[in-house]
Specification:
With 190 residues, this protein is mainly beta. The chain has a single domain, classed as Jelly Rolls (Sandwich), CATH 2.60.120. The chain contains no helices and 17 strands. Strands 1, 6, 8, 9, 10, 11, 12 and 16 form an 8-stranded antiparallel β-sheet that branches. A hairpin with a 2-residue loop joins strand 8 and strand 9.
Length: 190
């Protein structure tokens, strides 16, 4: 994963043969205002510059232990326009989670139908539309979220992890890829 730029580089991380291992810092998070009334932009994000349309995906391995432990992918225009998506621990359960931020954050969750300790997540942005998909095996990619997303000349996209309530979540990111948008039909799960 050469060429990425850290936003809030974690104190402890390493890269070897395209695998990045991160241990999260205490109080790391991405959130803007809604419900909680605060703004945090302290999460760990390794961003890769894209053009105006792309598909990115990454494999994520982690063991979630504390409330709001999270790992997945982020697409970012700036501090007020971004999405983060992946697995997040909430109410004692690993949940599929996505936070779409356009000035303020929303939060959507669903029960995680696969082993949350090892999954893949894909983000496609094209023509003002964001498509998030998740996969347990790298073969089938069900839809997680379809939403409007800011049109920009370029974005940053890549692995993201946070632990708002603690430090010490260990995450392994691998199989990161960045390509032109796949252009598949919405119900094509490949």
């Amino acid at each position: 994963m050469k060429g990425g730029i850290w936003l809030n580089e974690p104190e402890t991380w390493s890269e070897h043969d395209g695998v990045i291992e991160v241990t999260t810092d205490r109080g790391s998070d991405f959130w803007r205002e809604t419900h909680y009334g605060f703004t945090r932009d302290s999460g760990h994000f390794l961003g890769f510059r894209t053009g105006s349309a792309f598909t990115a995906q990454v494999r994520v391995k982690a063991g979630y232990d504390a409330l709001y432990d999270q790992a997945g992918i982020m697409v970012r225009v700036d501090e007020a326009h971004w999405v983060k998506a992946g697995v997040e621990l909430s109410d004692g359960r690993a949940m599929l989670s996505s936070v779409l931020t356009d000035g303020q954050s929303d939060w959507a969750t669903a029960a995680c139908p696969f082993d949350p300790s090892d999954f893949r997540i894909r983000a496609t942005v094209s023509g003002g539309v964001l498509r998030l998909q998740v996969s347990a095996d790298g073969k089938q990619w069900p839809l997680v979220r379809l939403a409007p997303f800011p049109v920009a000349a370029s974005y940053l996209v890549g692995p993201m992890c946070c632990t708002p309530e603690r430090a010490g979540l260990r995450v392994e990111f691998s199989e990161f890829s960045l390509s032109p948008p796949l252009g598949k039909d919405l119900h094509d799960l490949s």
